[in-house]
Each structure stands twice: as C-alpha cells, then as structure tokens.
Amino acid sequence: MTSVITICDTCKRDDWAERAANDGVELTDGEALATLVEAAAEGVAGVETRRHSCLMGCSHGCNVSLQAAGKLTYTLGKFETTAEAAEGIVAYAALHAESQSGQVPFKQWPQAIKGHFITRIPPLPNA
C-alpha cells in the first residue's frame, strides 16, 4: 500500500525572515524541505509526496504528515532543511507503507526522525 508524505510548503523556521533579509533566502523552509523530500522519495516503492500550504503546526515547523488508507496517520515536525532529514522522513514512510497498521517498531525508526513526532491519529472507522 502507498504511504503519502504531505510536506507543508509554507513553513518558515523562526529565523527565516532574518536569513531572507541577510542571505537572500527566497524559498520558505517548507519549500526547501519539500524539494529534498521529493528527491529522496524518487523511485522509492510505496511512497508518494505532495505539497500542501499550511499544516497549522507553525510552532513545530518544518512539518510533514504521513498517511495511508486504513493506517495510523502521523504528523512530524521541527525538521531542519537537510538531506539527512529528508532521507529519514522517506525511510520512515517506506516502513509505514510496509506496515499493516502504519505503526513501525521504534528500533526500526531512522535516527533522523526520532524526536520529531507531534501527533498520531487513528484511522477513520470503515463507513
């Protein structure tokens, strides 16, 4: 089953305005992270990405959510815009895709996502 990583493309870390003014940063941190996650997910079986404007977790930026039909949904945040973070997000998404329930044993979690979980939402009951 496919797991979808939704990346908030409007996230701005607390120092974004200063970096934009001083360093000419044009992309939001969310856009930068989305680009890295999309690249890391390219060709990974069972993982898709999409961008969405504002996941409403501004105090936890940069944010992503991980979803699949009938599985636990996770929101993760407080990511730096690094290839390591993106690769960890995608690696966890691949494990989520392989899991029957979406739950992945802690010992299998990539180091890059540990400490980044914000919420876990149960799947909707079957209608």
Features:
Glutaredoxin; 127 residues; alpha+beta
Secondary-structure topology with pairs:
Blueprint: E1 3-8, H1 16-23, H2 29-41, E2 47-52, E3 64-67, E4 73-76, H3 83-98, E5 117-121
Parallel strand pairs: 1-2
Antiparallel strand pairs: 1-3, 3-4, 4-5
Helix pairs in contact: 2-3
Report on this model:
The chain is an alpha+beta fold and 127 residues long. It has one domain: Glutaredoxin (3-Layer(aba) Sandwich), CATH 3.40.30. 29% of the residues lie in helices and 20% in strands. The chain contains 3 helices and 5 strands. Helix 2 packs across helix 3. The protein is globular and about 50 Å long. The model has no long low-confidence stretch (mean pLDDT 93). Pfam families: DUF1636. InterPro entries: DUF1636.
Indicate the radius of gyration in whole angstroms.
Answer: 14 Å
User: What would the average pLDDT be, to the nearest integer?
Assistant: 93
Class per helix and strand makeup = alpha+beta
- Tally of helical segments: 3
Range of strand content:
15-25%
What is the CATH level 1 assignment?
Alpha Beta
Overall helicity: 25-40%
Q: What is the general shape?
A: globular
Walk across the major sheet and give the strand order.
2-1-3-4-5
Secondary-structure arrangement, i.e. CATH architecture = 3-Layer(aba) Sandwich
Strand elements, count = 5
Q: How many strands, what sense, and barrel or not for the largest sheet?
A: 5 strands, mixed
CATH topology: Glutaredoxin
Query: End-to-end distance, in Å?
Result: 20 Å
The topology string of helices and strands comes to EHHEEEHE
The tally of domains stands at: 1
Indicate the low-confidence ranges by residue numbers.
none
